[in-house]
Write a structure and sequence with these properties.
The chain is mainly α and 199 residues long. The protein has 2 domains: 125 residues, no CATH class; 68 residues, Helix Hairpins (Orthogonal Bundle), CATH 1.10.287.110. The chain is built from 8 helices and 2 strands. A hairpin with an 8-residue loop joins strand 1 and strand 2. The protein is elongated and about 55 Å long. The termini are close together. The structure holds zinc ion (ZN). Zinc ion binds next to helix 1.
Amino acid sequence: MSRRPNRARAFAPDPGADGRQCESPNCPALGEYRAPLSRQVLNQYRWFCLEHVRAYNAAWDFYKGMSPGQIEQHLRADTYGQRPTWPLGRIGGRIDPIKLDPEMLRDPLQILSAARDAERVRKRNEAPKDLREPLAVLGLSWPTTLNILKTRYKELAKRHHPDANQGDRAAEDRIKTINLAYATLRSRLAAEPKLAATG
Ligand SMILES: [Zn+2]
């Protein structure tokens, strides 16, 4: 848990960048940030350095030629990749900025969060099969350690303790599930310390 990164900023380098160079002519920087090719081709990307991806995004009028209704529809679409970035000032006059999801502004294409989720799931899936569900219950990635497990369990036990939830039945069920997941992981990690990495 201690190594889990904080929420990435909107302009954190993309984990999919593999050392390629910025596509802007004569730019010597690494192309660590990606931007969609066009509205029609949202699953192909161009790769730029931070400065040039910002310039590219600012220049790209994604909503050009769309009616306010179509824009609104696009903003509400849930599909990954249908959430482009845009210069706020340009559509500010047509759509109330307060309606915009702040999450979209931080990670406009939801690429970063999608990549992080995929990475988390991938890591968890590398765990021994019988430990995957308990790990998911506790929100832990694999590998983990007894110390990480105990710390996480204490947090969850405190948060979901029935006394802290006015005797809510759902909270009781949650704490049972958490206890079971904790017991399973603890006994496996204690019995086979080599299962878990030291990190
Ligand atoms: Zn560049």
